Amino acid sequence: MNSCYVERVYRNIMKSRDLTHFNVKVKETDLYVAVDIELAVRAAQLCEHVRSLVSREMRSLEQYIVRDPAFYVSLTPHPVRQDAPPIARTMAEAASMASVGPMAAVAGAFAEMVGRALLEDSKQIIVENGGDIFIKSRVERTVAIFAGKSRFSNRIGIKVDPADTPIGISTSSGTVGPSLSLGTSDATVVIAGSAALADAAATAVGNLVNSPEDFGPAVEWAKSIPGLMGVVIIKGDDLTAWGKVELVEI
C-alpha cells in the first residue's frame, strides 16, 4: 500500500518542536519526514511529492535489478551496468567504499535522495528510513540511539552540530530489526557526510562485532573507510566511540 499520513506516535529520533512531521509509506519503505514548521500548511502537498519521488525511484531500482540480479544479492561490492539509474549508482559507490554489497546502502540512499530533494523547499530536513537518517539543521539537535535491551538504549544520543550538516547517521544491529548483519552488536552507529555511505559503513562495521573484544578491530576498520566522521558501537552494557562524536544523556 502507498500512502501519506500524519505521524500520530512520536518516533523518538530527536527533539524537533520547530519542525512539522509526516510519514510516507511506499511498499516496505516507511519514511519519517520533518521540515520547517512554516511548511505545515503544505504538508499534504510535500507528502505527495515525496511519495511520487520514492515510487518513481523505487520502480527504476526494481527494473534495474531485473536486468542485473546480482546487484540485489551480492554481499560484496558490485559494479553497476551503464544503464544503472542514479539511485543504484549511489548505492554501489557507497557500498564499494565500505566493502559490502549495494543493498546495504539502500535505506540511506533513499533517505538522502528525499532529503536533498526537499532542501529546495525547507532549510531544515530530517528524513528517517528504518534507522538511517539524513539531516540538515540550523540548530543543535540530539539523535537518540536505540540499542535493543542494552542499558544505553534510548538513554544516550548523539549531539548534532548544525555546522556539520547535512550528514547521514545510520544504525545497524545484529539483535534488533530485520536487516542482515553478520555481527551481533546491539547498535553500530555511523556518522558520515553521506547517508548512503553511513548506511553501508554501519553494516560493514557492525558485521565485525560479536563481543566487546571486537570493538578495537571494528573501530580500526571504520577508520579505514573514507568519508566517515565517527562511530558508536554498543554491545550489551559496553560501548565504544571514535571520531567526531559527542554523546549526551537523554
Structural account:
This protein has 250 residues and is α+β, with helices and mostly antiparallel strands. It has a single domain, classed as ApbE-like domains (T-fold), CATH 3.10.520. It contains six helices and twelve strands. It has helices at residues 43-67, 70-73, 86-98, 106-118, 195-206, 215-224; strands at 2-5, 19-26, 29-36, 125-129, 132-136, 141-144, 156-160, 167-172, 187-192, 228-235, 238-243, 247-249. The chain has a nine-stranded antiparallel β-sheet. Strands 6-7-12 form a three-stranded antiparallel β-sheet, with no helix packed on it. Strand 10 and strand 11 form a beta hairpin. Helix 4 (106-118) packs antiparallel against helix 5 (195-206) and helix 5 (195-206) runs antiparallel to helix 6. It is globular, with a radius of gyration of 17 Å. The relative contact order is 0.13. Residues 5-15 have low confidence and may be disordered.
